Amino acid sequence: MNINSDREQKNRQDYRQLQLETIDLEPSFFEQATLLSNHFSNEAQQWQAYLNILALFALKKWLGDRHLILKDKIDSLLPTQMINSGAISPLQVGGFKLCLLTNESIVEQGIEIPEEIIYSPELAAHFYTLIQVLEEEKEAILIGFLRYDQLINKSLKQIKKEKYKLSFAEFKSDPSHLILNLKYLSPAAIKLPENTLTEKLTSWLECIFTESWQPVEELLRNRRPIVQMANVNETTETLSLKVAQTFLRQFQMTQKARDKIQIDLSQPELSQTEINNALVKILQTTEDEETRWQAAELLWEIDPNHPATGVRRGIDLGMQLAGVSVALIVAILPKPNQRFAILSRVYPLQDQCFLPANLKLIGLDEMGQSLFEIRARERDDYIQFKFTADSGDRFSLQVGLNSAMVTKHFII
User: How far is CA 253 from CA 186, 249, 260, 271, in A?
Assistant: First the structure.
């Protein structure tokens, strides 16, 4: 007699008596799970990835049937998420983060949860959802869910290094409550651990920087200026002054108030001081955001440390983005009305002239909702997005390529 098999069968019957949600696993789920798990050479990792992916398909189907969308694309999950022992986090549903806990066989002792899934600002979730995968029966059972604020108030039992254990009884077994929370609760009502690595951008205006954010001139020292030199004998500074003077003439022609920049543009050549003053005047007076950014970029080329240009810093993401050498540049530019203009831009580094196709720059608000998504095309030498923010606003920038993703957090 197989005692373990009998006990497992009895437990399955006990849970079904609780009228838990059963999700049918479709043939395509098994095909995709097999295909994606075959990327791993280790047999144990293949099996764990297989189960995790089946559970994820089940969760996505169950949410979709209730008009909720799991935003994450299953085939774009990080390899470490696929093989993590029974936990995939965070997954995005609206403004909420979900952690999917997966268990192959029901046991009375409960389920193990990695410590980082609870306490890491990057991985903690608003809701922890437990799904039982019954591969032979071609179904999954939604056993229950647990809110983060309820989880951390429990007396967590540490069973081994960096592992905690929860009994199944601690999960709420009525899944309709999870749906109500996802549809009608504000994500801010469940406080998650804050990321201590949040960059305060207004501190940049006071010349306070964290070590990883470098001056852009150092990071991009080998890149060409904003306009290619027509004459190889011209210096970058000479070219930039000529481009700036052309820009000022074009700007003045479009303005009703011809004294806007207060210099005589009929002169064949303007001094750097005159050009600097005119560009600063545009930064201080014009309301057109694109014109202001053009003026700021020209001033960065001519006088990078001029106080009127705001501040820009960059970070090399190569070590964090699967070895792809790119830089994230962020600039903050004060606006006349006490708001702030923000520029986010991604450049290729080293010997690369262009960004990898389909590299993404994504902006998220403080609830994790998408603000924008920009994708690099073939032969893009940079991608960017500009927006306006108020003091105290929080946002995140993500740079992603295939399954690799780097997230940086900011507050104004």
Answer: 50, 6, 11, 20
Distance, CA of 303 to CA of 276 (rounded, Å): 8
Residues with Cβ < 8 Å from 234, sequence gap 6 or more? Answer: none
Residue that the structure tokens 């398909």 belong to? 57
Report domain extents, the chain: 3-189, 199-411
348-403 residue pLDDT tens: 987 788 898 889 999 988 777 789 999 999 888 899 999 999 888 889 999 988 76
Six-digit token pair at 370? Answer: 């998408």
- Whole-angstrom CA distances from 256 to 106, 259, 290, 362 are 75, 9, 18, 38
Question: Residues 206-238: pLDDT tens digits?
Answer: 888 887 898 888 888 766 544 443 333 344 455
Half-sphere exposure of 113 (CA within 13 A, CB side): 29
Which strand (E) or helix (H) includes residue 36? helix 27-37
Give the integer Cα–Cα distance in Å for 191 and 324.
34
Q: What length does the chain have?
A: 412
Which tokens in the block code for residue 193? Answer: 């651990």
CA pair distance 36, 53, nearest whole angstrom? 8
pTM given for the model: 0.52
Q: Which two tokens stand for residue 45?
A: 């990792």
Strand 404-411 to strand 394-401: parallel, antiparallel, or no bridges (unpaired)? antiparallel
Residue 178 CA, chain-centre distance (Å), reads 25
